[in-house]
Amino acid sequence: MHHFHAFSVVMTRLLKGLLVSLTLVQKLCRTKPIDTTSGLGEGLSSSGLSRSIGLFSLTMIGVGATIGTGIFFTMVEAVPKAGPSVILSFLIAAVTAGLTALCYAELSFRIPASGSSYSFAYATVGEFLAFIMAACLLLEYGLAGSAVAIGWSSYLNNFLENAFGWHIPEMLRTPMIVSGPHGMEFHAGHINLPPIFLICMCCFMLLRGAKESALMNAIMVLIKLAILVFFIVVAFSGFNADNFFPFFNTDNSKGFAGMTGVTAAAGTVFFSFIGLDTVATAGDEVKNPTRNVPRGILGALLIVTVFYLLVAVAALGAQQAKLFEGQEAGLAVILQNVTGHAWPALVLSAGAVISVFSVTLVTIYGQTRILFAISRDGLIPKSFQKIHPRTLVPVSNTLIVCLVVALVAGSIDATYLWDMVSIGTLTAFMVVSIAVPVLRHKQGASRIEGFSVPFGPYVIPGLSVCACLYIMRDLPHTTFVVFSVWMAVTIAIYFLYSIRHSHLGKKGV
């Protein structure tokens, strides 16, 4: 009898533990219902944001978040790794982004809501992975905004030197934490003021409203495209085919010889395709999102890829690969060297100063809309979803994001930021790809007709995941360490706050 009682106690405890485990798994895997009326303007839930963005403005948001970022700045980081074969790096990144773009297009058609990959994950693979996805997106957008603002500073300084013969004092345009020849260095008293000023201007525009910001962005993107066409035409006048030999990097002192350098550079430039995700973050503010969001994503990808390849070929044809390393305002310097005159560099720097504003603007916009979506689901405090009654803008959300982005941009060297943005983007792209077959299975025969990934739900998403992993493998070790710390903090926040405040949890889901 005693043995039977002991056995029953043990079994009872095991059953209780199993029930607790099952309950926890259910909480982690709970998904947000997909609202079939979202195409009529309600999204996943009624958000209160205004649907004011059309297809052209939406496509320009995607182009604005990409063109400029990878061309104006990352050539300096990527060419020293790959040499002239950086063209292959852009192609690898473009093909990977293209595979993922098809997945984004299908998901954005079926889940047209603010929050992009986060919303897609919440409706398919569950709350916990959606929160992890949100953390990747916040890392991606926040650091992208900071990194681009830092790069903008060098073009501003180049413009001031060519136009007025004056430059910003070094203490006011260099950060406190920099990457030196022997590792991290601290320069007390230094601050990078121009990026902080740029972010303040972006904050002012975003507080005015989404429609006004989208219009201003479209104008700046058209200026940017015109400037890049100008660069391509002038740079090709100094084209030298000898600059492409040897095609692959032969210097293995840093471990970047051959294809290793190509994939490493692909990881560096990959964050330049962040614009695809930015298009999807606007789902709650787009007119007819089920039609316009997929078209906006694919249209932005096509424009971006064509311009990236043309500018990369022109730049490498006009300047030897070894000269890119450490070069400030690289494209402007190339024009000055090709023509022997300062005015082409002045035109390009002026165009970069104006147009790169749009990159920073849309990356900050994307981050605020992701935080809005997370807050709306109860996973972070309510202050991030409070909307101004007149402008319909999440004011405190926007102010907090701009403050953090400005602090990072003003104090940290951009060298530490590029690869962190890439790993966040790659992780987001993989989850989006996985979400496609999950959503197809979940909806089954009830799936509404519209854009679908070709060749079934597994081929393209599977290739997309494999391509992302291929690029990710050659990112620096430090990037993985920092990313792991970020993930640990994210998981702690989820279990300490989010799981208890989730709206789905309060509804008993």
Explain the overall architecture:
The protein has 509 residues and is mainly α. The chain has a single domain, classed as Up-down Bundle (Amino acid/polyamine transporter I), CATH 1.20.1740.10. The chain has 19 helices and two strands. The protein has a two-stranded antiparallel ribbon. Strand 1 and strand 2 (183-186) form a beta hairpin. Helix 13 (330-339) packs antiparallel against helix 14 (343-376). Its main location: membrane. The chain crosses the membrane at residues 53-74, 86-107, 128-152, 186-207, 214-236, 256-276, 297-321, 341-366, 392-410, 416-439, 451-472, 478-497.
What's the SSE blueprint?
Blueprint: H1 2-29, H2 55-66, H3 69-73, H4 75-82, H5 86-110, H6 117-124, H7 127-164, E1 177-180, E2 183-186, H8 193-208, H9 210-236, H10 259-269, H11 275-281, H12 289-318, H13 330-339, H14 343-376, H15 395-411, H16 418-443, H17 459-472, H18 477-501, H19 503-506
Antiparallel strand pairs: 1-2
InterPro entries: AA/rel_permease1
GO molecular function: amino acid transmembrane transporter activity
Membrane topology: Multi-pass membrane protein
Q: Describe the biggest sheet?
A: 2 strands, antiparallel
Structural class per helix/strand content? Answer: mainly alpha
- CATH C-level class: Mainly Alpha
- Please report which band the strand proportion falls in: under 5%, 5-15%, 15-25%, 25-35%, 35-45% or over 45%: under 5%
CATH topology: Amino acid/polyamine transporter I
CATH superfamily name?
Answer: Amino acid/polyamine transporter I
Helix and strand sequence: HHHHHHHEEHHHHHHHHHHHH
Estimate the helix proportion, in percent: 55-70%
Mean pLDDT over the full residue set:
78
Protein name: Amino acid transporter
Membrane topology: Multi-pass membrane protein
Pfam families: AA_permease_2
InterPro entries: AA/rel_permease1
